[in-house]
Every structure is written in structure tokens, then in C-alpha cells.
Amino acid sequence: MSVDVIIVGAGIAGLMCAYDCVRAGQAVLIVYQGDLEHTSSFYAQGGIAAAWLDSDSTAQHMTDTMMAGDGLCDPRVVQDFCDHAPAFIQRLIDLGVPFDQDAGGYRLTKEGAHEHSRIFHVKDHTGTSIIQTLGHHLKDHPLVQWENHALQGVLQSSDQSRVIGVRFNDQNYLAPNTVLATGGFSNIFSRSTNPRPNIGEGIALAYAVGAPVGDLEFIQFHPTVFCTDSHPPLLISEALRGEGAFLVNKNNERFMKKYHELEDLAPRDVVSRAMIQESGPKLNIVPLMTSIQYRFPTIYHALQARGFSQHDIEIPVQPLVHYTLGGIVAKPNGQTEKPGLFAIGECSLTGFHGANRLASNSLLEAGIMGQRCASFLIQHAKSHHHNDTSHHLTSMDPLASEDLIFLGHLTNQALGVIRSSNELTSAIDSLGGHPQKDHPMFLFLMAILHSALHRKESRGGHYRSDFPDTHANARHSLVAHSHELLHVDAI
Ligand SMILES: Cc1cc2nc3c(=O)[nH]c(=O)nc-3n(C[C@H](O)[C@H](O)[C@H](O)COP(=O)(O)OP(=O)(O)OC[C@H]3O[C@@H](n4cnc5c(N)ncnc54)[C@H](O)[C@@H]3O)c2cc1C
């Protein structure tokens, strides 16, 4: 089948884009790895933010987003996404997402650094409901071709002026437009809250074909993750703290008072650093003992599967890599600097989240970008069919497991909650001396490490023990294919 659009990734960004494209009659090829259940979108528990209640406002949602973003949000982009948030929620409701309600209307909750209750949720499996709803609409659609394969490369026209398709399953697939919706790169670390495919291969390939990437050093750790050796890490949603749970140390002291006025609902980077200072941090869930199994059934059952009883009141928790702020520089409609190549969702960098993401703003950004990208593609449909049979392939061999272990170890050491020049320099030396140093994933990790080394300040999701202060001027890090790192005022 000849297709109008290739979408790589089947999370909320990719599926939303696909849904709007096929409604307009465009033929879509969706390439994804694993299954729909193993996307960050499917894992999302807490919900999706929108100023909905009369007591709330877009202006307040903007303020909270920009406070979390620590000087690096683009106010126009923040206004745009916050303005459109209620309409996007309405869109999801119309599509059939069953957000929780009670007698007073939608039951909205609060998460860290939100001034108001504005999080729409479906119990604690909001992302699952959204992906199931979109998947249901797309599953048997005649204009959708599903391909379960890892990306092996990006194709450009022979003069390398335009992306004209992708390679997977040892074959080339051409289309007028290619959309990357491949999520973030948290799983490049040896342990994260993310599914296995999210190691950033889409971003690495975009970088390899010359699309600028930026703000790669900003990485969000989720403070409350329960880790055991026998099970995958279990994220304990911030909504539990929003509804009364609180952190204690090994002496049972509520320590967050010492670190931030918002206490347990302080921004995630503040909570994560506080937890590293304290010993034996645990989440006390006494205020939720009667409600947890109804309000947070997924977490409750996952805890039981890990040996918890309904009488246990404390969960040992630790910060774990969760969300990557940086990515492929893109407009809110996904347009990148490379003609024919679009980036939407967590793999992109729009300026919405800045240096740190406000909880529940990422499903929002990814979904709206999916819609916007589809509108753009529909308007510009078929204007760029590629007739030239020659092409330029930028390929990426899958990394051997020992290389992935090497990269995981390196990122754990150098790019943790607290970083320093020594660790970053030593990681750069190890990477530069590795036989695989020219592989796109190694080059991408090199760009991340350089961005972290050269940001000689602490801000949002980047904290340096050797540079703990924040500069007065907030600047973005930008890396183009030339590997030159620039610090710029706007992206
Ligand atoms: C545990 C957890 C809880 C979260 N909770 C919330 C929340 O409550 N609210 C909120 O707003 N955000 C939350 N987030 C963040 C949010 O879920 C993500 O930012 C968002 O879902 C990203 O959507 P996406 O469509 O960009 O990417 P994803 O949903 O990550 O999808 C990426 C897709 O790309 C595919 N892919 C990746 N690499 C390749 C490759 N090389 N080849 C082929 N396919 C590839 C994957 O298979 C997948 O289909 C949470 C994240 C996690 C991990």
C-alpha cells in the first residue's frame, strides 16, 4: 500500500495523529516496537491537566507550568497548550475516554506544583484508557497499516534535503511525510519507569540526519518509585501525595517541610534531591487506607503482587528516571528543521515544559501535538511525493545487549539526580574510547553528556554539585549535526 504518512510510535502522540489523518482520508503506516501496552502513554497513571473549574484559569495553569519550567519555558507555547487544554479534554471525552466523575461533575485531582485541582483521570490508569480508546478507533481501520518493528534507519532524498521515509524489517518505506512519535530516552538508563523501547532511537536518528536537538541535559526523576529485584519498577503516582500520602525518613519524620514550602507536593527535582539527602525514605499511605484500592486499584494490586498486605502503611520509595525534557526541536505542530520530518510528543522539544515538566502536562502536549501535526499534514497533503528512486540511507544497527548495558551504566553514573564535572568528563572519555563511538546512539549520548557538562549551573532537571546556583539568564542548549553545542535564548 502506498501511504501518505509514516508515523513511528504508537503512544498518545502517534495514535492521535494517526486518528486525525485517517479521518481526513490519509493512508497511514504506523511502525512501533513491542505492543501498545508497552508505551509510556499506556503506563501513565495520574492523568492529564486542564484548567476546567471556574475557580481555576488558563493563566494559573500557565503560571504553574512556567514555575516548574524554571526559566526555560516559551511563554507563547505554554499559553497555546494551556489555552487548548480544555478543548483537548473535551475531544478525549467525545472519543469515549471515561474520565472519573462524581455528583459534582468531573472528579479532578491535584499533583505536585499545581495550585488547583485540574488533573482529569480514569482512576489510576488514565493512559491505559486513552490508548485503549484510540486503539479501538484505529484497530481495524482500512487506512491504517500496523507494522511491529524497530526502526533501522531514515531515508532522505539523494541530495539529503528532505526526509522521504524510513527503513525497518530490512526494507525501505517511502512517504511524503514521516512523523517521529518515539517517546523519550529514559530507558537508556539501566533502570527507569519507562518501557523498554524508550531509549531515544528516534531522537538519535533525527540528530543523525541533521535535525537540531536541544535541552538534552534536563531529565526528570520521579521521586516515588518502588524498586525490587524481582519486579519492574513500580511508579507510585504523585496523586497519592495529592490526596494525602506523605514522605517520611527512617526516623518517621516528615522531612519535606525542611526543603520546600509546598512540602510533599514540591516540584519533582526538589523532592528527588531531598530524598537523596534523607536516609530510608518511605511513602506513608495512612490517609488513603480506606480508599486506595478503589481510587488507585492498579497501584494497589501491583503492591499486593509485590508482597504488600492491605495493612502495610509505608512503601519504600526512591527517585528513578522518568521523563526526558529535551528532544528534537519542533514547532507545536511537529515541524522540525528537516523538511519531511516531524517530531511529536516526548521525543520533541517545543518549549512547553522548559527545564522541568509540571506533572500531567505531557499527555496534554503529546495529544495536542498529534492533532496539530495531523492538521498540518492534511493541509499540505501529497505536495511532496518522491518520484526519485535514489535515496540516502542513515542506518542504525540494533545495539548489542552488552552495549546497552555499557550505556545504561554510564548514564547512571554521570547523569543522576546530582551531577558533577568529574563524572561527566569521565563518561565522555569512556564513550569516546569505545569501539561503537560512531553509532548514532553513542553520538546521541555524547550530545547529552556534553550538554550536561557545559551547563555550568543548576536548573530544573539538571543539578550540578559543583555549580549549585542558577544563572540569571536562562539559555537553551542546542546541538546540531555538526556536534557543535550552542547556548541560545530561544529554540
Ligand atoms: C509510568 C509513567 C507514568 C506517567 N504518568 C503520566 C501522567 O499521569 N500524566 C502525564 O501527562 N504524563 C505521564 N507520564 C509521561 C507520559 O506518559 C509520556 O510523556 C507520554 O505518554 C509520551 O507519549 P508519546 O506518544 O510521546 O510516547 P510513548 O507513549 O512513549 O510511545 C512511544 C512509541 O514509540 C515507539 N518506539 C520507540 N522507539 C522505537 C523504535 N526505535 N522503533 C519503532 N518504534 C519505536 C514505542 O514502541 C511506542 O509505541 C508517565 C510516564 C510513565 C513512564
Report what the structure shows.
- With 491 residues, the chain is α+β, with helices and mostly antiparallel strands.
- The chain has three domains: 5-218 and 322-394, FAD/NAD(P)-binding domain; 222-320, Flavocytochrome C3, Chain A, domain 1; 399-488, Methane Monooxygenase Hydroxylase, Chain G, domain 1 (Up-down Bundle).
- The protein has 14 helices and 24 strands.
- It has helices spanning 12-23, 40-43, 58-69, 75-95, 126-138, 201-208, 238-242, 268-277, 292-295, 297-305, 362-379, 401-414, 421-432, 440-454, and strands at residues 5-8, 28-32, 48-49, 101-102, 105-106, 119-120, 144-148, 151-156, 163-168, 171-174, 177-180, 213-214, 219-226, 234-235, 246-248, 282-284, 314-316, 318-324, 327-329, 341-343, 348-349, 392-395, 476-479, 485-488.
- Strands 7-2-1-11-20 form a five-stranded parallel β-sheet, sandwiched between helices.
- Helix 1 packs parallel to helix 5 and helix 4 packs across helix 11.
- The chain is globular.
- The mean pLDDT is 95.
- The chain binds flavin-adenine dinucleotide.
- Residues 8-14, 31-34, 39-41, 43-48, 126-127, 150-151, 181-183, 193-194, 197-198, 201-202, 235, 323, 345-346, 360-363, 366 line the site of flavin-adenine dinucleotide.
